[in-house]
Amino acid sequence: MISVLWTVIYVVAFNAIVAAIGSDNIGELAWVVWCKFTPTKAAANFKELQKVRNEAIALNMEITGVSAQDEFAKWARLNRKLDKLKDQKEKLDATHNSQRTFFKVVVRRSIWVLTSGLKFGVRIKYRKTPVFWLPKGAFPGFIEWILSLTSAPKGSVSVAAWFMIVDYAIKGAVVSLLTESANLLISIRNSQSARAPMKTTPSKVADSTAKLNAEKEPVNLTEKKQK
Q1: Are 34 and 120 in a shared domain?
Q2: How far is CA 35 from each of CA 23, 29, 108, rounded to the nearest angstrom?
Q3: What is the pLDDT of residues 121-148, one digit of tens each?
Q4: Rounded to 5, what percent of the chain is helix, strand, coil?
Q5: In a domain, 227, yes or no
Q6: Contact (CB, 8 A) for 11 and 117
Q7: Residue 64 covered by a domain
Q8: In terms of Cα–Cα distance, which of 130, 138, 137 is closest to 162?
C-alpha cells in the first residue's frame, strides 16, 4: 500500500505535469486521437470533412488551370461543383466545431476532477493522518502546531502542510528546469550565429575598397609636397 507521503508527491507531480502541458493542449490532442482511432459519429464527420477539404483544394487548383474564355463550359461546371463542396464543407465545419467544443469541455472537466478534485479528496480522506512525525523538540511549539494543521496530531506533519511543501518544491524544480532549458537554447542559438560566416557582396567590397583608396590619397599628396 502506498503511503500518504508518496500519494501526495504523485498527486502534486501529476498536477504539475498537467499544468505544464496545458488543459487546452491536452483537449486538442485528445480530440485528434478520438477522431482518428474511434468508430464514432465525430470521427466519421472529421474524416468526411478532411475528404471534402482535399477535394475542394484539388478542384480549386484545377479551376485555376482552366480558361474561362476558351473553356467556359468546363470552367462553369467546375465552379458549380466547387460551390457544392463549399456548402458541404460549411455544414461539416459547423458540426465538427460543435462536437469539438463539447468534447473539450468534457476533457477540461475530467482534468479538473483528476487534478484539483483528486487533491481535495486526498486532503479530506487523510486530514487526520500524520504524514510523518517530527523529531521531538526539534522545532518550537508554534511551528509544530502550524505543520499539524488542520487536523493532524501535534508534532506531526499534516497532509495539508505536506501538500504545500511538495507543491512549492516541485513548482520550483519545474521553473528551474524550464529556465535552464531556455538558457541552453539561447546559448546554442548564439553560438550558431557566432559561427555563421559573414557574407559580403561585391558591391560592399567595392565600396570598402574605394573608401580605403580615398583615405590613402591625401596622405600621398602631402608626402609629394614634402618631397
Answers
A1: yes
A2: 18, 10, 17
A3: 988 888 888 888 888 877 788 888 888 8
A4: 80, 0, 20
A5: no
A6: no
A7: yes
A8: 130
Tell me, yes or no, whether 28 and 95 share the same domain. yes
Residue in this structure with the C-alpha cell 513548482, named with its chain if needed: 171
Q: What is the pLDDT of residues 4-16, one digit of tens each?
A: 888 888 988 888 8
User: 150 preceded by cis ω (within 30°)?
Assistant: yes
pTM: 0.62
Tell me if 62 is assigned to some domain. yes
Specify the amino acid at residue 53: R
Residue type for 120, please? F
Closest residue by Cα to residue 129 from 160, 159, 90? 159
Instruction: Tell me the mean pLDDT in the region 89-113.
Output: 90
Cα→Cα distances 151→7, 67, 142, 166, 219, Å: 18, 82, 15, 19, 92
120 occurs within a structural domain: yes
In terms of residue numbers, what domain contains 28? 20-125
Clarify whether residues 106 and 179 are in a common domain: no
pLDDT over 60 at 211, yes or no: no
Which of 140, 35, 172 is CA-nearest to residue 92? 35
Give the cell for residue 77: 461546371
Q: Taking a C-beta distance cutoff of 8 angstroms, is the pair 100, 56 a contact?
A: no
Q: Count how many domains the chain has.
A: 2
Secondary structure (DSSP) of 196-220:
SPPP--HHHHHHHHHHHHHHHHHHH
More confident position, 200 or 167: 167
Three-state SS sequence of 25-60: HHHHHHHHHHHHHCCCHHHHHHHHHHHHHHHHHHHH
Alpha-carbon gap, residue 166 to 173, rounded angstroms: 10
Length of the chain: 227
